[in-house]
């Protein structure tokens, strides 16, 4: 099927092509919701069954890092929306600028995530043989990044939680399985999104996007916002609910 | 005053999608939906015969009560790999990815699917997933049952579970991409005049199927991903030893795998709607109801999954609700069956091969559907749960329904796909052989199950031997019934009689273009001005219809007068 300019051979008009691509992306996002839905269901059910362990898991997360990442992602959604707008009104330079900003913010997110994951490794909170929810409380010298006051509080909370759930360590491991599963899946989507943004950037530098033809910017924008929304759900689910209970 | 030209005088068109370009690259890198359909045809046929081989091993083993052929361990692997090959790699892609892929653009008057490259990608994804699964099959095989119940699959099984799970996970995305492509294509690529209620019911059925693929498949993907990670990295969601819940796995698994049954049967129902109208020379009775029934099946099909889990100790109230909903899903299926039967009434019926498969479908689907109600009733299910009754029931739906529809459709559209006719009498005989073989294989299994023979056991009490011998004998006949079409269809693709554009003749848009079609499908985008299946107002079909169809009974032999 031959391509005439921006119009692919199977379509009759650019408008039809744009409608088709947009609908395709929306349908794809529906499949993504079902995909994330499965693991969120597993998380929610386990959170209900093993409430103390999951609340304890939430307590160990760094609210500041998670909160900053939320702000970073929201900002990236704004720059992405601006890139889409720039494409619609045909401001070619602005597209490039806003796409670059979006990529930059995406990488800030990865940076923060790297720090967060690193902490979890140091604190023995990665599911597996060496998982130990009591590690920092028992070895304060190994967890100097946590303030002593916070550690004391954590010790207290752990004591209470163990009383409620003697098998706390196993169940906390379930929490962290979900944590790494969900944030990992989200991060994977961010990586794919960043790849798409680099491709858009290349095309936009080449001046491909105009007020008439900007479908790729539009639908990658949809995808990026979706990934953002997933985080908007993950943040309260993992960090906020039942904190310090 | 027939305008039909004798088949022998017909010529193959000079230029068509098969001879448009040459070379292996032109096939492996094609974005033409028709060529991709043929790629799928080759790959699903391969898996069908792999799955069929495992089935033969099972049946041969069960010839004697103590089982003489396989060790118990090998037996477990055989039935597991039979299920995996047949369900994930044959039944789910069969009609959608082969016939749907080939026909949907033709039927709606489009040049291609909405996303031709994604279409090709879906085939590669299927091949990669299939390769992983084959790797598992030749490296120790798989013994968990096709359902991968945890913790057997995640902790205790010693077979090659991980590559199979990875393979099925990957193949799921091929199904998602196909569903996405169909749904968007049906929305945005229809030719002028092709309104929603002028769509052939084959397209409606695929629309409903796409909805199930899109909403269900991602759930099984994440479920298998979690089970896979559990096996590889020791996560604990489904492992009771770590506080996880194996029943959660079953819920998530059946949330997809019950609707997946409708991925297999809905397209087949679409094929039957086309066939029954064409070979009765009659407008399909209750077109709107049949279209709506497809959607209803897709929607209600999502609300019945725990009827696979009545014996897991789930809440009685949940069981009652799911039992009720299971009965509800029988309603749209019955609506379809009644409408098909009503279409036959007063029609000018011809017994060409596709119609023989249609009659096969009607009878077998009826038995399969009604026995499903036995299984959906709470009390009866406890008695026949996990027995051969279940095996017989779903084979009547999957083989008697889905595969009969697939073969009927393949014969019906074979002249469109290849431009040539298959040998008609051989095809009729093999359809009959298949029907007899099928019933001989699976009907005794209803009796076995009702008498209490459990499924998945490698031995059985001697009093069940008679039925098992019947079943094995039937399986051998069935094998002949499947091998014959494969041989003569392949032969006819090269040496068959030239078919012409519309050999039956049928009313769909796909028959308005040459056989085999051009790469672009139509020389000029068609404009649709007629209603679907309207044999009476289609002089272009060359049917003799006195009084515009309101006069005496319409007599129009199907397939010329050869």
What attributes does this structure have?
heterodimer, A: 245 residues, mainly alpha, Four Helix Bundle (Hemerythrin (Met), subunit A), 8 helices, elongated, B: 562 residues, Cytochrome C Oxidase, Chain A, two-stranded antiparallel sheet, 15 helices, 2 strands, 64% helix, globular
Structural class of chain B: mainly alpha
> What is the CATH T-level topology of chain B?
Cytochrome C Oxidase, Chain A
pLDDT averaged over residues of chain A: 93
Number of domains of chain B: 1
Intertermini distance of chain B: 16 Å
Shape of chain B: globular
> What's the CATH H-level superfamily name of chain A?
Cytochrome c oxidase, subunit III, four-helix bundle
For this structure, the CATH topology of chain A is Four Helix Bundle (Hemerythrin (Met), subunit A)
Major beta sheet summary of chain A: none
CATH class of chain A: Mainly Alpha
Q: Which regions of chain A have little confidence, pLDDT < 50, spanning 5+ residues?
A: none
Q: Tally the beta strands of chain A.
A: 0
Number of separate helices of chain B: 15
The CATH architecture classification of chain B is: Up-down Bundle
* Alpha-carbon Rg of chain B, integer: 23 Å
CATH architecture of chain A: Up-down Bundle
Domains of chain A (count)? 1
Low-confidence segments of chain B, ≥5 residues, pLDDT <50? none
Order of helices and strands of chain A: HHHHHHHH
Give the helix/strand class of chain A. mainly alpha
Q: What does this protein structure show overall?
A:
The complex is a heterodimer of chains A (245) and B (562). With 245 residues, chain A is mainly alpha-helical. Chain A has a single domain (14-240), classed as Cytochrome c oxidase, subunit III, four-helix bundle (Four Helix Bundle (Hemerythrin (Met), subunit A)), CATH 1.20.120. Helix content of chain A is 77%, strand content 0%. In chain A, helix 1 packs antiparallel against helix 7 (168-205), helix 1 runs parallel beside helix 8 (215-240) and helix 3 runs antiparallel to helix 4. The longest helix of chain A has 38 residues, at 168-205. The model of chain B has no long low-confidence stretch (mean pLDDT 93). Chain B has one domain (24-549): Cytochrome C Oxidase, Chain A (Up-down Bundle). Chain B is mainly alpha-helical and 562 residues long. Helices cover 64% and strands 1% of the residues of chain B. Chain B has a two-stranded antiparallel sheet with strand order 1-2. The A-B interface holds A 1, 9-10, 12, 16, 19-20, 23-24, 27-28, 30-32, 34-39, 41-42, 45-46, 49-50, 127-128, 167, 170-171, 173-174, 177-178, 181 and B 31-32, 110-116, 176, 180-181, 183-184, 187-189, 214-219, 221-223, 226, 229, 233-237, 242-245, 248, 252, 519-520, 525.
């Amino acid at each position: 099927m031959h391509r005439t300019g921006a119009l692919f051979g199977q379509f009759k008009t650019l408008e039809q092509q744009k409608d088709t691509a947009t609908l395709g992306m929306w349908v794809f996002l529906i499949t993504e919701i079902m995909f994330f839905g499965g693991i969120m269901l597993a998380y929610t059910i386990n959170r209900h069954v093993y409430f103390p362990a999951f609340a304890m898991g939430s307590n160990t997360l760094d609210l500041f890092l998670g909160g900053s990442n939320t702000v970073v992602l929201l900002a990236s959604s704004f720059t992405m929306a601006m890139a889409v707008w720039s494409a619609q009104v045909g401001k070619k330079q602005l597209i490039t600028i806003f796409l670059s900003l979006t990529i930059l913010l995406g990488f800030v997110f990865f940076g923060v995530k790297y720090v967060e994951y690193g902490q979890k490794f140091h604190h023995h909170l990665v599911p597996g043989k060496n998982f130990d929810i009591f590690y920092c409380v028992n070895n304060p010298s190994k967890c100097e990044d946590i303030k002593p006051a916070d550690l004391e509080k954590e010790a207290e909370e752990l004591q209470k939680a163990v009383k409620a759930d003697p098998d706390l360590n196993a169940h906390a491991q379930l929490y962290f399985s979900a944590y790494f599963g969900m944030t990992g899946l989200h991060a994977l989507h961010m990586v794919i999104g960043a790849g798409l943004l680099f491709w858009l950037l290349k095309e936009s530098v080449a001046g491909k996007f105009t007020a008439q033809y900007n479908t790729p910017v539009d639908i990658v924008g949809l995808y990026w916002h979706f990934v953002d929304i997933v985080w908007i759900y993950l943040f309260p689910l993992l960090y906020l609910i039942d904190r310090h209970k | 005053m027939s305008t039909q030209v004798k088949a022998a005088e017909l010529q193959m068109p000079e230029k068509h999608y098969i001879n448009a370009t040459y070379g292996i690259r032109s096939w492996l890198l094609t974005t033409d939906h028709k060529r991709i359909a043929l790629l799928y045809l080759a790959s699903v046929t391969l898996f069908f015969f792999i799955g069929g081989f495992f089935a033969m091993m099972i049946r041969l083993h069960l010839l004697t009560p103590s089982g003489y052929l396989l060790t118990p361990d090998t037996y477990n692997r055989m039935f597991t790999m039979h299920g995996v090959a047949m369900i994930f790699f044959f039944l789910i892609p069969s009609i959608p990815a082969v016939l749907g892929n080939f026909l949907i653009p033709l039927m709606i008057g489009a040049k291609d699917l909405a996303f031709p490259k994604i279409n090709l990608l879906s085939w590669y994804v299927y091949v990669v997933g299939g390769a992983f699964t084959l790797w598992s099959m030749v490296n120790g095989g798989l013994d968990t049952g096709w359902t991968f119940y945890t913790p057997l699959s995640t902790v205790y099984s010693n077979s090659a579970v991980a590559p199979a799970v990875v393979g099925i996970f990957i193949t799921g995305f091929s199904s998602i991409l196909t569903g996405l492509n169909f749904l968007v294509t049906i929305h945005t690529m229809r030719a002028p005049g092709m309104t929603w209620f002028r769509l052939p019911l084959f397209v409606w059925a695929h629309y409903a199927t796409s909805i199930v693929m899109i909403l269900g498949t991602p759930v099984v993907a994440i479920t298998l991903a979690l089970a896979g990670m559990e096996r590889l990295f020791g996560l604990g969601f489904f492992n009771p030893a770590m506080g996880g819940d194996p029943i959660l796995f079953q819920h998530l698994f059946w949330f997809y795998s019950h609707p997946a049954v409708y991925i297999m049967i809905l397209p087949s129902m679409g094929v039957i709607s086309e066939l029954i109208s064409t070979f009765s020379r009659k407008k399909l009775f209750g077109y709107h109801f049949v279209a709506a029934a497809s959607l209803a099946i897709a929607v209600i099909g999502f609300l019945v999954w725990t009827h696979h889990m009545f014996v897991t100790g789930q809440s009685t109230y949940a069981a009652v609700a799911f039992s009720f909903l299971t009965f509800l899903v029988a309603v749209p299926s019955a609506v379809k069956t009644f409408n098909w039967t009503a279409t036959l009434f007063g029609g000018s019926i011809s017994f060409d091969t596709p119609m023989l498969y249609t009659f096969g479908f009607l009878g077998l689907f009826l038995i399969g559907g009604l026995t499903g109600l036995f299984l959906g009733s709470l009390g009866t299910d406890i008695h026949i749960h996990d027995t051969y009754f279940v095996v017989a029931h779903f084979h009547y739906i999957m083989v008697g329904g889905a595969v009969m529809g697939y073969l009927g459709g393949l014969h019906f559209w074979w002249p469109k796909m290849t431009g040539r006719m298959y040998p008609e009498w051989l095809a009729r005989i093999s359809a009959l052989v298949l029907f007899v073989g099928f019933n001989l294989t699976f009907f005794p299994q209803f009796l076995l199950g009702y008498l209490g023979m459990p499924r998945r056991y490698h031995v059985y009490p001697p009093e069940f031997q008679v039925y098992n011998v019947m079943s094995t004998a039937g399986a051998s006949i069935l094998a002949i019934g499947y091998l014959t079409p494969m041989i003569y269809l392949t032969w006819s693709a090269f040496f068959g009689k030239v078919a012409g554009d519309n050999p039956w003749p049928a009313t769909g848009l796909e028959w308005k273009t040459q056989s085999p079609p051009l790469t672009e499908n139509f020389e000029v985008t068609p404009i649709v001005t007629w209603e679907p299946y309207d044999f009476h107002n289609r002089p272009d079909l060359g049917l003799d219809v006195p009084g515009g169809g309101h006069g005496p009974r319409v007599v129009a032999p199907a397939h010329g007068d050869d």
